[in-house]
Amino acid sequence: MAYLTIIKNGETIDHRKYGLKLLSFRKESLTHRTNYEEMDGRHGAIDTGTTFGERKLKATFLMQGVDHLDYQLMIDEVYALFACEDSIELIDSRQPGKVWTVKPSSTFEPDDLNSRSGKFEIEFTSPSPFASSYGSTLDPFTFGEEVWQIGQGLIPSDSLVYRHRTNRFSIFNAGNVEIDPCLEMPLNIVYKGASSNFTIKNKTTGQTVSYNGSSKSTDTIKLEGLRHLKNGISIYGNTNRRYISLKPGWNDIELTGTSGSFEISFDFFFFYK
């Protein structure tokens, strides 16, 4: 029987301990937000681009107490469970490798089936239209811990390498969404080693980040989304102020300005429509 894992304030919660049985969990399709521009003397309109809106998800639960008094106490506990000032995370046991970050967006009240049981539906809103992977690229790609699942676009694990010590390599984005730090998608690229005028280029997207400076063998250069750091201190002003994104599939990466032995790692989550 399917169930939801709820992560609230850092605590992992199994709703079945509250006497809740999951009857259904559904997500809506993507909401397309397409902008059109009209021009005088031209038929129709010009499509100027599409983005996706927030995502709605709905869960239906059956709740059953020992008796009518226990049922009333259970209702209060469930109301408290879904009273959220901060976002919570939902993981469907049927897809344990994907996480939805949501907040409840509807009121709910159980419809009594008898004196000790009832049924209710609750709606959640994800500000992002995408689910993220439960695991990051620096987690082991094994299926024993329910970190990964079938249907996540993964390829044989010996090809999924996210730590490299050469100047040319490829990074695989198993999701069907581009990893774009401008859209608050975490992407941490960490270079450990000596360098002079270090440059990293994603040849697949044509994006380049360059650092007009140097690093020693004990130094760390980190591209943390849109932030550029060396040993935890901002070097953004000494860079070309660009960023790296990752297209779905393979991304060919090239480094210049490296010196001696080094290691570079790519740590990020995959995203799914």
Describe, in plain words, how this protein is organized in 3D.
With 273 residues, the chain is mainly beta. It folds into two domains: 4-129, Elongation Factor Tu (Ef-tu), domain 3 (Beta Barrel), CATH 2.40.30; 154-272, Sandwich (Jelly Rolls), CATH 2.60.120.860. The protein is built from one helix and 21 strands. It has one helix spanning 68-81, and strands at residues 4-8, 11-14, 20-27, 32-37, 46-52, 55-64, 88-92, 98-104, 111-114, 117-126, 131-133, 163-164, 168-173, 187-202, 207-210, 214-215, 220-224, 227-230, 233-234, 249-268, 271-272. Strands 1, 2, 3, 6, 7, 8, 9, 10, 11 and 21 form a ten-stranded antiparallel β-sheet that branches. Strands 12, 13, 14, 15, 16, 17, 18, 19 and 20 form a nine-stranded antiparallel β-sheet that branches. β9 (111-114) and β10 form a beta hairpin. The two termini are 25 Å apart. The model has no long low-confidence stretch (mean pLDDT 96).
Short description:
Helix content is about 5%, strand content about 50%. The chain is built from one helix and 21 strands.
Topology summary:
Blueprint: E1 4-8, E2 11-14, E3 20-27, E4 32-37, E5 46-52, E6 55-64, H1 68-81, E7 88-92, E8 98-104, E9 111-114, E10 117-126, E11 131-133, E12 163-164, E13 168-173, E14 187-202, E15 207-210, E16 214-215, E17 220-224, E18 227-230, E19 233-234, E20 249-268, E21 271-272
Antiparallel strand pairs: 1-2, 1-7, 3-6, 4-5, 6-10, 7-8, 8-10, 8-11, 9-10, 11-21, 12-20, 13-20, 14-15, 14-16, 14-17, 14-20, 17-18, 18-19
